[in-house]
Design brief:
This protein is of the alpha/beta class and 149 residues long. The chain has helices at residues 5-13, 35-55, 74-85, 124-147; strands at 20-28, 60-62, 66-69, 92-97, 110-113. Strands 1, 2, 3, 4 and 5 form a five-stranded parallel β-sheet that branches.
Length: 149
């Protein structure tokens, strides 16, 4: 489910069954030498988020991506997200990112870090195969949290 009015209505009516929120975290690096890598990482993360959302529609909600720049204090951002997410009724909150800096940040919820894979030159079949492989990796993190309940 996505952060659109129709899906939010569905969530409101079925919140007992939709217990998971996924928040994509996207680094925006505007330095000329790293801008393309930053864009490639963002493309990968958004494509993967869409792929996961389709697989788990009715179990999880995807928030709009939280974007930040290279000068953002990640711990401060994490603290703000933690405080704001406490207001939600989601039991499980996952933060999905390709930025390895998040692995050293303390946040209430689970950080799932994946290395970005450039998609811009791939054909659709290879892209689909890679997304399925990534889904299997991410699924273990979801299952751990869901089963720990």
């Amino acid at each position: 489910m996505n952060w659109v009015p129709r899906d939010v209505d569905t969530y409101s009516n079925q919140k007992d069954y939709i217990d998971t929120l996924v928040v994509p975290l996207i680094s925006i690096d505007t330095r000329p030498e790293t801008m393309k890598n930053s864009a490639s990482s963002a493309e990968f993360l958004m494509y993967l988020s869409t792929f996961i959302e389709k697989q788990f529609k009715g179990r999880m909600m995807f928030s709009p991506p939280v974007s930040y720049t290279q000068s953002t204090d990640l711990q401060q951002l994490a603290d703000t997200l933690t405080e704001d997410m406490k207001q939600s009724s989601f039991t499980h909150i996952f933060y999905l990112t390709t930025d390895s800096k998040w692995t050293n940040v303390s946040v209430d919820g689970k950080i799932i870090w994946l290395p970005a894979i450039p998609l811009d030159t791939m054909d659709e079949h290879l892209r689909q195969t890679i997304m399925e492989d990534q889904l299997r990796q991410v699924l273990t993190h979801f299952m751990e949290k869901w089963n720990a309940q």
